[in-house]
What does this fold into?
Amino acid sequence: MSVAGGVPVGSRIAPGRVRIFDTTLRDGEQAPGAGLTAAEKLEVARALARLNVDVIEAGFPASSPGDFEAVNRIAKETKGVAIAALARCRDGDPQRAVEAIRVAERPHLHVFIATSDIHLKHKLRMTREEALAAAVQWVRYGRQALGRDAEVEFSAEDASRTDPEFLLRVYEAVVDAGATTVNIPDTVGYAIPAEFGALVGRVVERVGSGAVVSVHCHNDLGLATANTLAAVQAGARQVEVTINGLGERAGNASLEEVVMALRTRPTQFAGLASRVQTEQIMNASRLVSYLTGFVVQPNKAIVGANAFAHESGIHQDGVIKNPLTYEIMTPQSVGLAGSTLSIGKLSGRRGLQSKLRELGFELEGEALDAVYRQAIALADAKKEVTDADLLAIVGQRATEVIDGIALEGWSVTSSHGGRSTGGVTLRVGEERRQAEASGNGPVDALYRAVDEALEPIVGWRLVLDEYEIRAVTAGEDAQGNTLVRCHRSTDEARPPLVVTGHGLSTNIIEASLEAYVTAANKVRAALAAGGPEGTDAARAAAGRLP
Ligand code: KIV
Ligand code: ZN
It folds into this structure.
C-alpha cells in the first residue's frame, strides 16, 4: 500500500479529486503593494473557506509578529479547511509555523529550501548535500511536532531549474523522512508545459505512491495555468494557486482558470475534479481585488469584466439564439448571476441578510446592523443598491481599524484656476485634531490637512504614490470607490512600508478622504504590531514580507 507519513495517500485525497491549495494570503500577498492587515486576511480566509478550497496557505509566521498573529487567528477561526504555514528549512522558522497552526482543525506545515545550483551557490551558499540534510531534518521535525495525521509538505524551491537526478533524490529522502506532499515549484516561471509535465511524471513515478505530488507555477512567461494543467495530466494531485493569479512578479497560476479548466474539460483530465464551489469565484475575486487594490484586467479569463461580454453583433445574435455558440461555461457557474437587490428605506434587515448570504457573507448581530445602516444610507443617496455596492460595503468594513483615526468632518473650497483650501477634523483615540491646508486641488488640500493634523502626534506624513477613483456601478448616482497607495515620509532610506486604503461614498471627496485616513490607520496599526519604527516586522505587519 502507498503510504504518506504513515497514512495511506488515498485517504489524504479522495479518488478523482485534485486538491486546491490556495496561496493568495502568502504568495499572493507577496506581490508588491498587495499587503493586507490581519482583519483583511481573515475576511479573505472566510471567502476561501466558502469557496471550499482544500488548503489555505495563511502566511509565513516567522517573517514577522504581525504575520504570526494573522496565521494564528486564521488557524483558530477558519473551520472545515486545512490551514498551511510556510517555513524555511532553518532553525526557528518551522517551530514558529507549527506554533501558529497547531490550533487548526487540519494543520499543514509547508517547509521549503532551494535545490537549484544557482540558488545554492549564490543565495544560500550551501552544498547540495547540506540542502538535502536540512530538508530531511525539518520534514522530520514537522512530522514529530504535528503528529501522524497532519500534513507536512516539502517544496524544492526553483525545482524546474534543478538537476533532475538531484531533485528526485531530495524528494525520495523527504518522503522517507515523513513528507506527505512534495511540491514542485516553477519558482521563476521558466518551465514550458510539455517539459514540466515530463518532470512531474518522473516525480510521480519515483515518489507518487508515497506522497501527494503538488505543483506551484509562476506566470513569468504567461504559462502558469498551462503548466499547472500539464502537471495534473502527468499525475499531480495538488495545485497551488491564487485568486486572480495574484503573486510575486507576474503572479501565480490563477485558481479560477485552473478550476474552471478542470470543470469545463473533464475528459482532458480523466474526469478529475476539484471540490471548489465555483459559484463563489466572482465574490472571492472581487473581495481580493478590493482589499489588495489590484484591479483585475477587463480581459482576464473567467473574472475579467469582459469575460462574458459579447460585443460584436454576430456574437450577440448567436448567444441570444443559444449561449453555447460563444460561451463554453455559463456566467452563473462562476457566480455572475448579477441580480439587483432592491433595497430602500423600508427594506428589512432579514432581506439584506439573505442577500448577503447569497453573496457568500454570513453576517449577524452588530456586523449585520452596521452593513444595514450603511446600505440604507446609500439607498437614500442613490436609486438602487446593487450586489457590487454591497460587496464594496462589506469589503470596506474589513479594512476598518477599531479605535483608530476617525474622520469627523471636513470642508473645502475650490474654484476654477485658483488654489483650494480645506480643513479636517479627526479623532485619534480620545483626542480631537483639526487642521487646515491649501493645495492644487480639493483632494490635495484635504490630504495636506490630514498630514498637518496627524504629524505632531504620529511623527510622519503620508506620501501618496497612487490615487485612483472608480464608480462601483453605472449611473450618475453611483458610489465612488477611491483607492490610494501610500508610504510614510520617514521611509526614504529603506524599502518603504507600503499600504493601500479604500474609501467608499457617493461623494468623491469624502471617499478620497476616507481612503487616506484608512491608509494612515494601516501605517499606525503596522507600527504598533511590529514594534520599533522601520523594522522588518513593522513592514510585514503592514502586509509585506521582508
Ligand atoms: O515560488 C516558490 O518557489 C515558492 C515556494 C516557497 C513554494 O513560493
Ligand atoms: Zn511562489
